[in-house]
Amino acid sequence: ALTGGDLTIYEDANNADVSLKMGTSATESLTIQVLNGGSNKTAEEVHFSTATASGTADHGKMVFDVDGTDIMTIDDGGIDVVGAITATTDLTITGGDIGFGNGQDATVSVAATSSGTDGRDLTISAGSAPTGSANQRLVAVTELEHLIWGSTLK
């Protein structure tokens, strides 16, 4: 067992792909790799992987804990987050719905600008429907606060 001090692992070579493996065997482990280019020393990717021989769902999952609280879990079903998710740039969701729990209030909003209380445009749209379909819906809200307060939209 390693006790005290720092653990530093470097390999000064092209395509070094340095890794740290922990567990009881190669089939029951966590591997962290720094993957380099084939002809350079550039850290092109950091790869985290788990291995388990178990066929039980979610064995090998990753749990991230901050200050004693589990805040994120990555398992066979995807990613679960406790708390807020903040995106400082565009957030793109592909391949599905955004769902809210039964009985849970839901808010979709656009933050007010620094020069006033008016928000920005919020557009909610559906993709094009097949010709003749009655299921196509498109809603464009240019002044969200008018919708919230029951006023007439401009």
Model description:
This protein has 154 residues and is mainly beta. 4% of the residues lie in helices and 32% in strands. The protein has one helix at 144-149, and strands spanning 18-25, 28-36, 43-51, 62-66, 69-75, 78-81, 122-125, 138-141. A three-stranded antiparallel beta sheet has the order 1-2-3, with no helix packed on it. A three-stranded antiparallel beta sheet has the order 4-5-6, with no helix packed on it. It has a two-stranded antiparallel ribbon with strand order 7-8. A hairpin with a 2-residue loop joins strand 1 and strand 2 (28-36).
Secondary structure: elements and pairs:
Layout: E1 18-25, E2 28-36, E3 43-51, E4 62-66, E5 69-75, E6 78-81, E7 122-125, E8 138-141, H1 144-149
Antiparallel strand pairs: 1-2, 2-3, 4-5, 5-6, 7-8
Throw out a few tags for this protein.
3-stranded antiparallel beta sheet; 1 helix; extended; 154 residues; mainly beta
- Radius of gyration in whole Å, from Cα? 24 Å
* Shape verdict: extended
Helix-and-strand structural type:
mainly beta
Give me the strand/helix succession. EEEEEEEEH
- Counting DSSP H or I runs of 4 or more residues, the number of helices is 1
Helix content: under 10%
Strand order of the largest sheet: 1-2-3
The rounded distance between the terminal residues' Cα atoms is 70 Å
Q: State the low-pLDDT regions, or none.
A: 136-142, 150-154
The proportion of strand residues reads: 25-35%
Q: Main β-sheet: number of strands, strand sense, barrel status?
A: 3 strands, antiparallel
Mean pLDDT: 79
Count of β-strands: 8
